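Hi R.,

Here's the chain you asked about this morning:
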Amino acid sequence: MSKFPNNFFWGGATAANQFEGGYKEGGKGLSIPDTLTLGTKDTDREYHYPIDESKYTYPSHKASDFYHHYKEDIKLLAEAGLNMYRMSIQWSRIFPNGDEDKPNPEGIAFYRNVFEELKKYNIEPLVTISHYELPLGLAEKYDGWANRKLIDLYVHYANTLFTEYKGLVRYWLTFNEINSLSMPSGGFPVGGIKSIAGGHGMTTQIEETSVQMSTRFTALHNQFIASARTVNLAHAIDPENKVGCMIAGMTSYPLTPKPEDMLAWQEKIQQGLFFCPDVQSNGEYPYYMNRFFRENGIVISKEKGDDEVLKNGTVDFVTFSYYPTGCVQAKEEKKSNGAINAFGTPNPYLKKSQWGWNIDPVGLRFYLNEFYRRYKKPIMITENGLGAEDKLENGKIHDPYRIEYMRQHVEAMSEAIKDGVNLIGYMPWGIIDLTAASTGQMSKRYGIVYVDADDQGRGTFDRYRKDSFYWYQQVINSNGANLE
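And the predicted structure, written out as tokens:
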């Protein structure tokens, strides 16, 4: 018998800048990822602007071409049995530069058509308001989220969405993986802060000065305020609205039982994992950040009344992505470029994917319990999946490795629900193939639906059901009881 609740959300997730395409169509303006070029397994992506498509491949320009395939794609999601679809809206499709007074009518119409199509199939949209796609104009004109002006611009954008799509969308996420901005690498990609990232270059200064760190954490504070104000606005416009936070779930373990490793692990998960949801769910900065701010000379620019805004704008539910886990030791080895691996020291007990990400379904149960114990709010897993090279042969894709990955994680979810965790939804990442955020490659595939396109955006863009499509279909039809 299924251990999943009858109203469980079985879904899938994509992000507009990795899936939508149509980057010049329908009045859309440029976003930061529109300037991001293709990388490889071994080579980082770079930002190149002005755009030169004769010299570089920009994956977001075509992506999976959802812009022209949305009816077909939504029909496939319905066939698989999904009752929720996590997607994002591109700010630059609604407000091309990010700071206009009136929205772009073509952008408004496009997403309304998408939501109406989802409604036709009784699929509930879960909409990320900002998913790593800040309008380029806001980075150029304001230095991104380092400027408090972006709070009002974001709230104006969110107000437009809540008003235009009232009755069509009830579940919202304010920012994707907001804790990414707590890391040095998030300065420009996540925050649009040119003064930290050195313009449009991919190079990020890992050894930041206290002034640079203060700028970044002020930008994060501005996002906290924008999120809190947006929660209250959503409730005021439609009491049916539910607003959640979304965290990059970089779970880790101490490498050894040494007390020094335990303390290093505790510090890592507090600062990197729990800091942001502590603020967004509990409505205040956690005590343990005070020492970190003090010892690093970090001064956050706040205004009078900010603490009250945070306290009164807590989220209704919490969500996170879940991919690899890592281990933490007191003195971590650094990579050749000087950056500490975001996932920590490799875990010798876990197998790895083709892209070197370890696979840890047991860790998902651990993380779900930790999250629920801490916040006591409904939880959704809004990203989880396996990036792998799939082969299209005679119109079929056999991906037993993905089925096994998903089966193990669904089993872990079932165990967490037995533990008492209030888990309400599961959104596997890249439910239809899309370009990978880390590399821009289409060949790093996550979906249960194959998109016939290569890393350079060449192909028919036809869709094909993988074996995992039929497996997930039976899981949903049995409400998690049939995992064979």
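The domain at 9-477 is CATH 3.20.20.80 (TIM Barrel).

Let me know if you need anything else.
M.
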